[in-house]
Specification:
This protein is mainly beta and 165 residues long. It has helices at residues 7-15, 103-106; strands at residues 41-47, 54-60, 66-67, 71-74, 84-85, 90-91, 96-101, 114-120, 125-131, 141-145, 151-155.
Length: 165
């Protein structure tokens, strides 16, 4: 599911120093740990109840295009040998991508007390989330609030492919 730029992204894009309309390859002058200033591919929401329909959402908060095939995801920090590549797909600034996760395809599944790491192709960590049992209940999710820029929190109803509210 693809969603386009909404006002909440303007904060994250502006923090990266890129105009929202610049169709260029994503780059960031400086990477910082503050969620409000995250620039690049941001892990925004995780629905992980240990079921076959678990998923997570990433958002392009840069001012340029992001090629998802340059990134991988895994449930164990540093386990790049187990990391799964994203599909070959380009995200425009502000665009979202929902990635479904299953043991049969990915070799792992997201569970109730788990973590998810996003890495660049060179092995550099891009973003991550670590949640406790109950933080991502069935039908709900573990999501950034406010959308894209906030800290992770448990929400009762997931917002798959849409802004967290």
């Amino acid at each position: 599911m693809r969603k386009h730029l909404v006002p909440a992204f303007a904060v994250a894009v502006a923090a990266c120093g890129h105009p929202a309309a610049a169709p260029q390859v994503a780059t960031c002058a400086a990477r910082v740990s503050s969620p409000a200033a995250r620039c690049g591919l941001v892990l925004n929401e995780v629905a992980a109840a240990g079921r076959s329909d678990d998923w997570f959402e990433v958002v392009n908060t840069s001012g340029g295009l992001i090629d998802l095939s340059d990134y991988a995801y895994v449930d164990t920090p540093g386990a790049l040998d187990r990391a799964r590549a994203f599909p070959a797909f380009t995200l425009e600034p502000g665009e979202r991508h929902v990635q479904h996760v299953s043991t049969a395809i990915d070799g792992f599944q997201l569970g109730g007390d788990e973590a998810l790491w996003i890495y660049r192709a060179d092995g550099t960590p891009e973003d991550h989330a670590d949640w406790d049992k109950g933080d991502s209940p069935a039908g709900g999710s573990y999501a950034r609030e406010p959308d894209v820029t906030g800290a992770f929190t448990a929400i009762a109803r997931d917002t798959e492919g849409s802004p967290n509210s």
